[in-house]
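Fold it.
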Amino acid sequence: MAGGSHDKPIAVYGAMVANFIIAVAKFVAAGFTGSSAMISEGIHSLVDTGNQGLLLLGLRRARQPADELHPFGHGKELYFWGLIVAIILFGLGGGMSVYEGIQHIQHPVVEGGATAQTWNYGVLGVAIVVEGISFYIAANEFRKRLGVRKVGVWEGLRHSKDPALFVVLLEDTAAMLGLIIALAGVFLADVLEAPVIDGVASLLIGILLGIVALFLASETRGLLVGESAELSTVLAIEEIARADPGIVSVKRPLTMHFGPNDVLLNIAVEFREGMTGAEVVETVDRLEENIQKRFPAIRHIFIEADSLREAAPVDSAVAVRQDGFPTAGSPP
C-alpha cells in the first residue's frame, strides 16, 4: 500500500502489542482458574501475536529491491507470509482450541469458586477493551484504504490486495467474537454450574478460528498465484487506450498483482494506419503516462503491437522489439 500499511503499518504494530499483553493476562488467569475457554483464548492471542510478527517480516522482505533473480521485485513475499499466517491460525489456533474444548467436554473441570471467576471476568474485561482499541485501529486503516469507494466491508475484504490490512482486521474481528464466546461460556458455566459449557465455548472458538483461517488462505492463495487487478481497473485501462488518437483497437488488458501497490500490465493494441515509427513511440509513451497517472500502482507496462509485427517489414521505418514495444528505425 502506498503510505498506509506498508510505510507505517500502524494496524499491525497495534495488534501485535495488544495481543501480547492479552495473551499474558489470559494465561495467568487460566493458571488460576483452569478454564478451557481461557486457555483457548490465550492460545488464540499468542498465535495472533506471532502472526503479526510474520506479517511485519513479510512487509520488510517485500520492500527489497528488484534483482537479477527477481526482476519484478519481492512484493509477493507479503502474500506468502499471509498464507503462512492463515495456516498457523488454522493449525495452532483453531486446532489446539478444538482439542482443548473436546478434552474439557469429556473431562469437565470445576473452577475454583469466586476467586477464579474474578480472574476470568477481570481478564476478559481488560481483553475486550484492549482488543477493541486494536480493532478500532485496524478498522480505521481499512476505511482509509477504501477511500471514496462506496463498497461494503465484505466486498472490501474480498477485493483488498493487502494482507497486512485484511489479515489484521479479520484476526481482530475473530478475537472480539472469541472473547464474547469465552465470556458467555465462563458466565453460563458459573451460573448453571455446568463446567462442560466452558469446553463447548473453547470448541466454538476453535471453529471460529478455523473459518477465519480458511477465508484468509483462500484470499492469499489467489494473490500468491497471480490475481488480476480489479475488473473496474482493467476496463478503465482499456478505455484509456481506446481514447488515444494513435490507437484504433485494443485487446482486453492482462494484469497481475506483485504486491498491494505493484501491478504488471500487458496490453495488445493496433496502431492507426500510416503512422511513422516516431509517432508510434510517441503514442506508446503517451499511453504509458496516461495509464500511470490514473493508476500509479501499475509499475510495469508491456505494450504489444501484433498488427505491426505481422504487417511491417523488417527494413521499414517501424520495427517491433521482442518485448512488444515499437521503436523508431531508419529506412535503408
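Residues 288 and 301 are 7 Å apart (CA to CA).
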